[in-house]
Amino acid sequence: MPKKTKIYLTAMLFFSMFLACDSKSVFDEYRSLPNQWNKDSVVSFKVEAPDTLNNYNLFINLRNNNDFKYSNLYLITGLEYPNGKTFIDTLEYKMAAPNGELLGRGFTDLKENKLWYKGHKTPFKFTEIGTYTFKVQHAMRKFGEVDGLDNLEGVTEVGFRVENN
């Protein structure tokens, strides 16, 4: 193999390893959704507590496309501790600019949003050793309507991420 090719392949290997490394990530998983997200569909993730000493940042990751027609996203979340105690929150996230353009990272119609869950205002610690369960479901409704939206279109994947603070 020519020396130039070896150098090129070595450089590509190191570059791909650099991109693949994510030193902050402790847990990062996604669940795919079939064309739409039903209001009764709860997406859940099980996370082993890394330790009880350090602070962590928790995120809800969301991938959506142009079929998502709303400027905000409402979610109901639950974080169940190993002892069974559960904290439930209703959260709102801005998903579009005033001109209607979807927020998030991505060059095509697929956008990725990293939404703060815990750790941005107050440090989050896993206070108990064991398995934590994070659950999330959408709580969307059309403007002016009382009943919730049965199926939310445009959300393709929901993820949960834990990072070192």
TrEMBL record:
Signal sequence region: 1-20
Family annotation (InterPro entries): Motility-assoc_lipoprot_GldH
Organism: Winogradskyella litorisediminis
Keyword set includes Flavoprotein: no
Cited Pfam families: GldH_lipo
Record key words, sorted: Lipoprotein, Signal
Protein name as annotated: Gliding motility lipoprotein GldH
Keyword Lipoprotein: yes
